[in-house]
């Protein structure tokens, strides 16, 4: 009898609410989305929780064209009005390529995030997102492949961006930086798409698994 009552109570109990997760940024997060093999798709698979993906290929942190901003090419305008348990975000690489050609990029880097991580367009975006999420995971860029690719000239600037973004995250509670180089060794060609810029499906799965594992570890922290 007691067992039957407990079973009935379990059936009557509401299911645990799923976490709400948002992904936003550029093509590193949107690549393979149409086939369900993007980085956010891999996170969703690992956590068994849907991930809303607003990332747009070619998006910049800030875009000067109003029509492009309307189409989501300005990452700052990918922000919905909803609240989330997690926000996964990335960006900045297309700004470096388009604004300074990855040569003499000090001014562009400073506009994105200052060396101390305190100010710039990315910290301003993060500070704007924090009231809408419990935690934010900034997904850094993985190393440029040793086989080259369109962003080969940007390697030094991307390294500087990563260092600054880590400083930004360290200054802000609830903000965490993910070093995706742990999942994407630059010599492992199979993890890169043929364009040597984006992750292959296998690479995206590895990044997503790393992100999900990191999210679980953070959630267990007191």
Automatic annotation (TrEMBL):
GO MF, one example: hydrolase activity, acting on ester bonds
Keyword Hydrolase: yes
Family annotation (Pfam families): Lipase_GDSL_2 (PF13472)
Domain SGNH hydrolase-type esterase: 23-205
Gene3D superfamilies assigned to the protein according to its UniProt record, in alphabetical order: SGNH hydrolase (3.40.50.1110)
Keywords from the UniProt entry: Hydrolase, Signal
Signal peptide annotation: 1-17
Highest taxon, organism lineage: Bacteria
CDD domains the record matches: SGNH_hydrolase (cd00229)
Protein name, as recorded: SGNH/GDSL hydrolase family protein
């Amino acid at each position: 009898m007691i067992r039957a009552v407990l079973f009935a109570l379990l059936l009557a109990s509401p299911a645990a609410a799923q976490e709400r997760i948002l992904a936003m940024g550029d093509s590193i997060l949107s690549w393979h989305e149409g086939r369900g093999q993007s980085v956010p798709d891999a996170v969703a698979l690992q956590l068994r929780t849907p991930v809303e993906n607003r990332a747009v290929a070619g998006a910049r942190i800030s875009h000067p064209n109003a029509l492009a901003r309307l189409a989501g090419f300005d990452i700052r305008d990918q922000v919905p009005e909803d609240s989330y348990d997690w926000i996964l975000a990335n960006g900045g690489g297309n700004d470096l390529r388009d604004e300074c050609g990855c040569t003499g990029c000090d001014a562009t880097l400073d506009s994105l995030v200052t060396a101390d991580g305190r100010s710039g367009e990315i910290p301003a975006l993060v500070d704007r997102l924090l009231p809408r999420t419990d935690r934010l995971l900034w997904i850094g860029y993985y190393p440029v492949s040793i086989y080259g690719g369109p962003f080969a000239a940007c390697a030094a600037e991307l390294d500087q961006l990563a260092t600054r973004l880590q400083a930004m995250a360290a200054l802000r509670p609830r903000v965490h930086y993910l070093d995706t180089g742990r999942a994407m060794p630059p010599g492992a060609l199979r993890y890169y798409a043929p364009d040597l810029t984006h992750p292959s499906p296998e690479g995206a799965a590895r990044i997503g698994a790393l992100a999900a594992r990191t999210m679980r570890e953070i959630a267990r922290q007191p």
